[in-house]
Amino acid sequence: MGKVVELKHPLVKHHLASLRNKHTPPHAFRDLVRRLTLLLTYEATAKLPLQPVEVETPIMKTECQELGARVGLVPILRAGLGMSEAVQDLIPQAEVWHLGFYRDEATLQPVEYYQKFSEHPPELALVLDPMLATGGSACEGIEMVKRWGVQHVSMLCVIAAPEGIEKVREAHPDVDIFACAIDDHLNENAYIVPGLGDAGDRIFNTLKR
Ligand SMILES: O=P(O)(O)OC[C@H]1O[C@H](OP(=O)(O)OP(=O)(O)O)[C@H](O)[C@@H]1O
Ligand SMILES: O=c1cc[nH]c(=O)[nH]1
Ligand SMILES: [Mg+2]
């Protein structure tokens, strides 16, 4: 069974407080998503496989270690884009493969509108989406990543609802889920409570006025 990890680090809690604040403007919101993603990535990549590599320092040759698997990042558009550059900062060689979904407001079902996968799937994929609400988008995204041929999938989100976690665990029991916070519940519009509102709109400054 995959694990569910909620980050407990004080810096995560500190940045989440500003992220949730409705007065935080988009440029600050983006910075906060970025900082939280760095902390999330540190945790989610703790078990990445390594392979030996010989390196010549100015003093002598020495045995070091480097990542031993191809890592793919799969941001779920749009909001997942707010996370992918931060992960790339820590794993510069990671491949980035995009998946476009929006959640239909009436049915709450994910609607796919973009997919960019190659013929050669990476061994390991990190699916990125700041919000795991009903879990519909995550389940569909993970399903597509697995069908593509990826063996190991982890889901990274900033805020997860218990309902979404349960849905992902039922459909994909092998997948590890990492979240900066697991919130209380979903409201009648399937928004996370207390949450932060619509992550995509806050990242891209497209809130309805
Ligand atoms: O768990 P679910 O109930 O499927 O909801 C979560 C999805 O909803 C949001 O995307 P949205 O549809 O708002 O698209 P956007 O990223 O373009 O704003 C969010 O970024 C997730 O992809
Ligand atoms: O709370 C939520 C739920 C879905 N999508 C969001 O961006 N926020
Ligand atoms: Mg949105």
How does this model look, in words?
- The protein has one domain: Rossmann fold (3-Layer(aba) Sandwich), CATH 3.40.50.2020.
- With 209 residues, it is an alpha/beta fold.
- Strands 1, 4, 5, 6, 7, 8, 9, 10 and 11 form a nine-stranded mixed sheet that branches. It has a two-stranded antiparallel ribbon with strand order 2-3. A two-stranded antiparallel ribbon has the order 12-13.
- 33% of the residues lie in helices and 31% in strands.
- The N and C termini lie far apart (44 Å).
- α4 links the parallel β9 and β10.
- It is built from six helices and 13 strands.
- α2 crosses α3.
- The model has no long low-confidence stretch (mean pLDDT 97).
- The structure holds 1-O-pyrophosphono-5-O-phosphono-alpha-D-ribofuranose, uracil and magnesium ion.
- Uracil (URA) binds next to α6.
- 1-O-pyrophosphono-5-O-phosphono-alpha-D-ribofuranose (PRP) binds next to β6, β9, α4 and α6.
